[in-house]
Structures are given as structure tokens and as C-alpha cells.
Amino acid sequence: MTRNELLRDTLTALSEMNKEGMHVAEVLGEQFVVLPGVFSPKYFKDTAFFAEHLPVRGVDRMLEIGPGTGAVAITALLRGAFYADVVDINHVAVRNTMINAVLHGFAHVGWRAPPPRIEAICANVFRYDGPTYYMTAHDKNRIGTYDLIFWNYPFGFTQRRDLSMLERSVLDRNYVGLRKYVSEASQHLNPGGKVFLGFSFDIGDVRRFKEVMQETRCEYAVLKETALVQTSLPGALEVTYSLLELHPR
Q1: What gap in Å lies between CA 130 and CA 137, rounded to an integer?
Q2: Pairing state of beta strands 238-247 and 189-199?
Q3: Which range has the worst mean pLDDT, 21-35, 130-144, 176-190?
Q4: Which of 58, 113, 103, 102 is nearest to 83 (CA)?
Q5: Which of 106, 142, 166, 191 is the most exposed place for a label (fewest CB within 10 A)?
């Protein structure tokens, strides 16, 4: 099957997912609420792979771009990370993450509650772009520095301008988001910090991906790779997903 056919199947699954409305998805034995308009790990299997293999043990502060339901960041906290910021351009995903953070005990309701271990920001990659939850007035206009940064990147290449928020969870117009992530990530790293990217060389545009890496002088290595059935829909094909470690300059 060609890359375009795989992308078409991805968008079909996205449409079917959105018809279900609010539902619950399981990731590595944990339950996550999924709001309408948010990328669902019930339908797409790469979330669990990245959540399981992201090297978070001993990480003090992490940042996840595009958390959707918050499953990866919350799993990271369950696996040993101490604190997580998450940023998403979709304000519904920001709210969805905080709902799941409360349900898993990493955020709290009430003025006497202890400080949260996860905070959600509406932002376009590293640029603050809207409402924040559980953040102070001092903090809300900046994204800090971290020991680990991760993005389960929407690796489908498109030139379309009219993308919905949900489509932007699987498509990146002209790989603008990728270029921003790679070129700016180093500004948000603590000394010794690491940057990771979720990608598929089966579905993503490999030529354009490599062009971005060359233009930004970023080296990368495959940390973990696996073949998974792409979606939960009947007839879905196997796709290889890669957890990449980036070395931006």
C-alpha cells in the first residue's frame, strides 16, 4: 500500500473515531477519557507504543507537545517522571488532558489542593497561544526548560490549508510544525536534556523529513521501532512506528 493510501486510511479512522463521541480508551492498562475532537488511542495504536518506550525514569521535568488525551504524559508520571507540562494547539485537548490528570490524581480541584504534577497549556509548539490550566500569571506566558521533550508528531504531510483541529493531530502542513520543533527545542532543554519524536517512515514523507533535518542541522537516531496494526478498524494494515532521539543544534 502506498503512503497516500495509508494516509487515506488514517483520515478514515479519524472520521470514524469522531462519530463515537466521548468514550474511554485503555493505554497500558490505564483508562483515559476521550472527548469529541481529540485524537483517540482507542483507534490509533501508536500512543501506547510511545508511552511504553519513552525513557522517562528519573526525569524531573518533561514537556509533551500535542498530548491529546494526556495518555503519554500521565503514563510518564506513573512510570517515574516527576512533573510534566503539556502543550496542545487544540483547546479541547488541553481540557481533555486535565480531566484525565484529575482522574489519575496528578491534578487537583479546590484552593486547598496540593500543587499539580501536570499543567496544560494551549500553544502552537513552543509559542503560548491561549488558555492555561493550573498556571500562575508569571508562568503562563512562557514555556520553561526541561529534561525531556517529546512529540508524537502528526507525520502525515499535506499542503492543505483548511485543516480542522482534529486533522492537525495527524497532518502537518508543509512540515512547518516539524521545522519549528526541531529548530526551537534546544532552547527549552536543561543541561543534559533530550528531545524525542514519534514518527512513521511508512506514512510520513521521508524525503521532506530528511530535508528538514538537513536544513536545521539536526541529527537523529532510532531509539525504538515496532510494527503495529495502524488502527482498530477492520482491514487496517501494519505500519512501522519509530521513536526517534533528536540531536538539534
Answers
A1: 13
A2: antiparallel
A3: 130-144
A4: 58
A5: 191
Contact assessment for residue 83 and residue 146, using Cβ atoms and an 8 Å cutoff: no
Residue 93 contacts residue 121 (beta carbons within 8 Å) = no
HEC-encoded secondary structure of the chain: CCHHHHHHHHHHHHHHHHHHCCEEEEECCEEEEECCCCCCCCCECHHHHHHHHCCCCCCCEEEEECCCCCHHHHHHHHCCCCEEEEEECCHHHHHHHHHHHHHCCCCCCCCCCCCCCEEEEEEECCEEEEEEECCCCCCCCCCCCEEEEEEECCCEEECCCCCCCCHHHCEEECCHHHHHHHHHHHHHEEEEEEEEEEECCCCCCHHHHHHHHHHCCCEEEEEEEEEEECECCCCCCEEEEEEEEEECC
Residues 113 and 82: beta-carbon distance below 8 Å: no
What pLDDT is stored for residue 192 in this prediction? Answer: 94
Q: What is the pLDDT of residue 138?
A: 39
d(C-alpha 185, C-alpha 202), whole Å: 25
Domains in the chain: ranges and CATH: 3-247 (3.40.50.150)
Chain segment 183-231, per-residue pLDDT in tens:
999 999 999 999 999 999 999 999 999 999 999 999 999 999 999 887 7
Model confidence over 90-140: pLDDT tens digits?
A: 999 999 999 999 999 998 665 555 666 898 888 888 875 544 444 443 344
State the residue for C-alpha cell 510518564.
76
